[in-house]
Amino acid sequence: MNQINDDETEMAALELALGYRFQDKTLLRQALTHSSFINEFPGETAQDNERLEFLGDSVLDLSIATILMKQFPTYKEGKMSKVRSSLVSDRNLAELAGQLNLGYYLRLGKGEETTGGRGKNSVLANSLEALIAAIYLDAGFERALEIVGSLFSPLIECGETFLNGDPKSALQELCHILFNDVPAYALIDEYGPDHAKTYRVSITVNGRPLAEGSGSSKKEAERIAAGIALKELEARKEG
What we know:
- The chain is mostly helical.
- The chain contains 12 helices and 3 strands, in the order αααααααααααβββα.
């Protein structure tokens, strides 16, 4: 669709998935409006989301930095910078946007629509940043921080595993050392429309459950679950 669906039920579904209900719906509309839409509909009163994206990038960086400071008190500045950069990559932002089915709600021009704009990592990542900025303007930093924490919690739980970029390999090596076995992955659920499904994967080792993770592809769900499993095993070792 080229225009955002203004049906209250449709918009409520997005707000429910996000965990936030906007007081000012024009901010939500702007966050979902791509520049290609404004270019094709110059009479449109809404602005595109590029300015919100600019602001959202900073709000997101500050939010993630705040969370890392609180959650990982032993991390040095260099490590926190690397983890933050990994967490807010376009790939991760696009995956989170996919879990919200954000692409469905975007207002795109016909050209961007026909070239698959709703599924482009860059478009989804930028739109999620714009959405975070819209929440910040609508309700302030503390509320934006809460939403960022909720969205990123599965990834943040992986902590420093983002530094190596391959938590599945790291988990396999650790499971071999600790259990003399390799982790087994299983798809336990999938939901959402065909163009924006969310997959949930479980990991077991020696037949015992270890962790679960969700993502917009099976591969991404496995990666997130592996990161959570690594964090759990590291905590057990420290204990």
